[in-house]
Amino acid sequence: MTDRILIIDFGSQVTQLIARRVRETGVYCEIHPFNKVTVESIREFDPRGVILSGGPASVTLDVSPRAPQGLFEMGLPVLGICYGQQTMVAQLGGKVETSDMKEFGRAFLDVKKDCSLFEGVWQPGAREQVWMSHGDRVASLPEGFEVYATSDNAPFAFIADEARRFYGVQFHPEVVHTPHGHQLIQAFTHQVCGCSGDWTMAAFRDQAIEAIRKQVGSGRVICGLSGGVDSSVAAALIHEAIGDQLVCVFVDHGLLRAGEADQVVKVFRDRFNINLVHSDASDLFLGKLAGKTDPEEKRKIIGATFIDVFEAEAKKVGGADFLAQGTLYPDVIESVSFAGGPSVTIKSHHNVGGLPERMNMKLVEPLRELFKDEVRALGRELGLPDEMVGRHPFPGPGLAIRIPGQEITREKLDILRKADTIYLEEIRNAGLYDAIWQAFAVLLPVKTVGVMGDDRTYDYALALRAVTSTDGMTADYYPFDHGFLGRTANRIINEVRGVNRVVYDVTSKPPGTIEWE
Ligand code: XMP
């Protein structure tokens, strides 16, 4: 079995980053919520080491989250980060206090002595930058622990009991603002835990193919292709495992960007030789959307019509036993909730979530263990074209939610497609595509007066949006320079008939959302 690390989650905002950093060292890991972890579950998972994440609670309160006490008797290496350090200290007999000297953001550590985690990274006497975010701090150490580095406000910034292989850090090695953080994590997974670093996408591909064959046997699998990264990689992987037992259905709702439908057909049918049904349902979708302007109504119509078309196509090809989905690890991680309570629906996302029950199919989800960047690496490993695996996310309802507050017509879709193509072309030419999470144009429900040549124009205003993000949950607008914006606006107004004004959206999320509807 591949070496694995267990991450016990205490609800930090950045727990997923710990997992990303561990995987980058070539080691498989999983995040389990603290309230589901027991000594037995750890034994069953059989990790080579355990990382305790940070979290918003305070161990100084009467009731606070804990690691299973038996963890510290299992002989496993443990790395406690921030709250993880504090609970380890408290559970092993040390003391934690609420400090007046809170530290948030950049801080500096004075390295006091050599430690196995510092090998080749930090030397005694060095002053090293780290990133802190804490109110509580360790006040006295449990037996066996020593201090290896201090910061101005955290005298126990780095502690360890090398004999038991327990390490505690007050700072966050998982964030990029701790420049050597990834090396410290690598020292933990490799030197201390003895992991070999054999988790690669090439290895994963072989294991996943075996697992798919075992799960599916001689059954048939149907996969909804959208042209997006996740479903494309899932389809290519499943096809490699079971060949013609896979049928892909591409429901073309007529709301895709320029050239997208052609690319899906070209790559999957022509290059990969995958059994692909291309269902051009644009008339049906546009018919149902006629006269509709409310965002939720549009979303619901598209979601329901998609399921109808998919189901009809599946029947035509004789049905299937399994439905393939491109579910990723972040969708699967159980979150630690302190607040509880149901959250409000901001947007009803269009996906095929209701299909498996309705069609009575089992699920094949070969990407359930992967993060997005790993899915992209796997896609390259499988030979998918770069522009497909590196593509920005694109919403299920497509361009319909980028023509906000107004009726969707072919004419408007056409204008939007042309403008969007120019915008993305300029972004690629400027070498900015990969620095941006998502970029797109929005056709506004407002016409404005302009002057072109000697003529008056009365045409659409168009908004450009580009954001940075790591998961789509929060986002900031991308700070293009004015030269770029001016050039792009100029091209759009000159080349796209129907647009005479371009504006740039500088709203972050929250309070805005990434899409306009
Ligand atoms: P918002 O607009 O909610 O979007 O900030 C967050 C991310 O989700 C994408 N998005 C969707 N994806 N079906 C999808 O598959 C949907 O209905 C949908 N709505 C928004 C959006 O593009 C962004 O990446």
Automatic annotation (TrEMBL):
Pathway: Purine metabolism; GMP biosynthesis; GMP from XMP (L-Gln route): step 1/1
Catalytic activity, reaction form: XMP + L-glutamine + ATP + H2O = GMP + L-glutamate + AMP + diphosphate + 2 H(+)
Binding site for ATP: 226-232
Domain GMPS ATP-PPase span(s) in chain numbering: 199-391
Top enzyme category: ligase
Subunit details: Homodimer.
Function comment: Catalyzes the synthesis of GMP from XMP.
Name this polypeptide is given: GMP synthase [glutamine-hydrolyzing]
Protein's organism: Caenispirillum bisanense
